[in-house]
Amino acid sequence: MDMYFKFGEAKAGRRLFEGMVVRDVVSWNTLVSGYSLCGDVDAARCVFDQMEEKNLVTWSTMVTGYARVGKLDVARWFFDVMPERNVVSWNAIIAGYAQNDKYSEAIDLFYQMLEVGDGGRGRRVKPNDVTLVSVLSSCAHLGALDFGKRIDRFINRNKMELNVFLGNALADMFAKCGCVEECKRVFEKMRERDVISWSIIISGFAMYGQVEEAFGYFLKMLECRVKPNEITFMGLLSACTHAGMVEKGLECFNQMENEYGVAPKVEHYGCVVDLLSRAGCLNDAEDMINAMPIRPNAIVWGALLGGCRIHKDVSRGVRVVQRILEINSDHSGSYVYLANVYASMGRLDDAAICRLRMRDNCVKRTPGCSWIEVNNTVHEFFMGDRSHPLTDRIYLMLSELGTRLKLAGYEPKTELVVHNVHEEEKEDALFTHSEKLAIAFGLISTSHGTTIRIVKNLRVCIDCHEATKIISKIVSREIIVRDRSRFHLFKDGKCSCNDYW
DNA sequence: ATAGGGTTAG
């Protein structure tokens, strides 16, 4: 019966169930999980409501079913009211949160799992490898290295075997938390590796712009006769993008289909357009979009727009904005670009109209956010944020940094700030960027010489990048920033990205 | 027998 459901044959599964002479709770559960597997939670719920005898499995199935379709509140309700819970029920709800991008909540629940167990009789439930996979994946997304390291110690202390799932999750956590060497160590230690393991280590090196290592592992992967997939090639292509290696990237793009039989998807085109655009090959980038066999999305055009901004190609930029707004009228980057172009030409009225249009369409820019983990707590900062308990000391540190930065020759890069404020206000706006707040907090709350690790949701801005380089020198600290697509290692006044990002 | 897990451009 579950075979039918696995192949999406819900009706056949149901017919088989109807024909059964003796039905026990297991056959009912199979029916419920079958519907849930096909994505039809409502049907699963309907069966659930008809069942007279329910057990742990029935309840857990409902938790998974609702989580799978993104109805987390309902999943949580089932989890909260179920009469007893075992490790699988906990895993179901934790995975549900993690898979719906609620990483902090997933980790909170993991803590609760350790504390309360099944809730009813106070019996503790011990996490297993499946639990840790979801928790590690959440750490990876949050960049929560300290917490990830504790999970690593838990694995070692309990002598848990690094199976391919757990090993992959652990290696990916290290890669995404700024420790490629640890990622490598885990990868080498794993007894079994699949295409996902190889893709993780390749994109791990890609995030640091280490092309040689990324392609080195690609060659080893081929030697081990593991077939690369579309995600492996995303890793390789983004390695080329992060290092500005146009020729190698194009070669890789051509080979993926011709030699390895992996058809490029819109994501791969996006990556190559980004590669060409950053390098200033705007004609080639635009030609590539126009010749694509699949429909370009707003992200592909957005990559070209980014290049127009870097290389100040205004006329192409305005043309690209039109194409983006045709596809997605909510694209905040386009409005901001256009407004800045008008403003820089002195057409302030047009700039204002553009911003009004953005507001009328209720387009919101994603607010910049940075966070830093200190003593197992994640501290989050937004631009101009004054909500942190240590705000006074943070701003004191910021102004001290400001003075020392200017002495060291730093000049605020105000050109990209909105154009209707005074020069001094622009500088203030720059100086309270979330990234600088997080760095200032890191400086006052960690001991001298400690590496500061920041994670941010957007790409690092040019001014923060310049400022962070100098800060790393004047305070003699390594500062590691993970932005939305790569790592920057600031040390002694320089950044590992060589100012290419 | 029936429930739980990892990688993807901007």
From TrEMBL:
Keyword RNA-binding on entry? no
| Cross-referenced InterPro entries | DYW_dom (IPR032867), E2_motif (IPR046849), E_motif (IPR046848), PPR_At4g14850-like_plant (IPR046960), PPR_rpt (IPR002885), TPR-like_helical_dom_sf (IPR011990)
From the UniProt record, list the PPR repeat ranges. Answer: 24-58, 86-120, 194-228
Where is the DYW domain positioned along the sequence? Answer: 409-501
Spell out the SUPFAM superfamilies in the cross-references.
TPR-like
Does the record bear Repeat in its keywords? yes
In terms of Pfam families, this protein maps to:
DYW_deaminase, E_motif, Eplus_motif, PPR, PPR_2
Q: Which PROSITE patterns match?
A: PPR (PS51375)
Taxonomic superkingdom: Eukaryota
* Alphabetized UniProt keyword annotations: Repeat
Could you give a single Gene Ontology term from the biological process aspect? Answer: RNA modification
Query: GO molecular function of the protein, one example?
Result: zinc ion binding
Do you know which PANTHER family this protein is assigned to? PENTATRICOPEPTIDE REPEAT-CONTAINING PROTEIN
What is this protein's name? DYW domain-containing protein
High-level lineage: Eukaryota, Viridiplantae, Streptophyta, Embryophyta, Tracheophyta
